[in-house]
Amino acid sequence: MKIAAIDIGSNAARLQISTVLHNADAVSFKRVEYVRFPLRLGHDVFSFGSLTPESIERTTKLMQVYKLLMELHEVEGYMACATSAMRESENGHAVASYIKSETGIPIHIIDGQKEAQLINNVVVQALDDRQYLHIDVGGGSTELNLYLNRQKINSKSFKIGSVRLLEGKETKGAWTKMEHWIEENVDSSREIIAVGTGGNISKLFNMVSKLSETTTTLAEIKRMKNYIAHFSLDDRINKLRLNADRADVIVPAAEIYICAMEWAGAQTIVVPDLGLKDGIIQLVFEQLSKRKKRK
Predict the structure, then answer these.
(1) Which of 100, 149, 208, 285 is least enclosed by beta carbons within 10 angstroms?
(2) What's 156-223 look like in SS3?
(3) Under CATH, domain 2-112+277-294 is a member of which superfamily?
(4) Each residue of 274-286: pLDDT tens digit?
């Protein structure tokens, strides 16, 4: 059985198609298709307040492509979720309705809490009993989740994101609110480890020296951020071989991870290959399983 997830973010829209694998009582998901396209919806919304006709047309075309790919893979179930840009757009819900009428794909515009919950459902599997601060940086928002003994203690969404910072559109006082939230919720008497998810931390992690297959240090993230920042945008693309839509946002995204880690007192960060799309995949599987049981 194949299932799929569509994640429409502020910077890019992703399609992931996975095969469901059964081994005894355990279920796992193997990625068989992954497509990422830089729509940059956040540029419209954070600058003008709504999605432009050009962005609506591009998003509609992309959903048509994703639908064809899902049909070719004979996907049995899927879900499309849109995050910060579309939920803040004045015409976000109208655009979602239009895309459904044109493509048949219903887009669920989810709030920060739901976004964090979906990511939490898969990230928690990579944790142990220690205290963790999960930092998920998107184009338009940053979701923070605090864990202890593999249980989520608290969570908060902040209007700080890589595209939002690039456009200079971060909400007034958002940095201070994030700092205060971390200081109030992290138990400074316990060891704290950061967990990073999002495309930018995954790319940074691929470029730094590592402590293990999934772990690196705050010092390494700082070093790589400063290294990349010394290059012009053209050189980041041509010399560092970063994608154009990654080259301009990776430094502001790194700044968010660094600040959150410093405020929490975390010296190491775990970077699992997980994100919102994986949370959506798991939810789709659970919903399909419930339907089959009812039959």
Answers:
(1) 149
(2) EEECCCHHHHHCCCCCCCHHHHHHHHHHHHCCCCCCEEEEEECHHHHHHHHHCCCCCCCEEEHHHHHH
(3) ATPase, nucleotide binding domain (3.30.420.40)
(4) 889 999 999 999 9
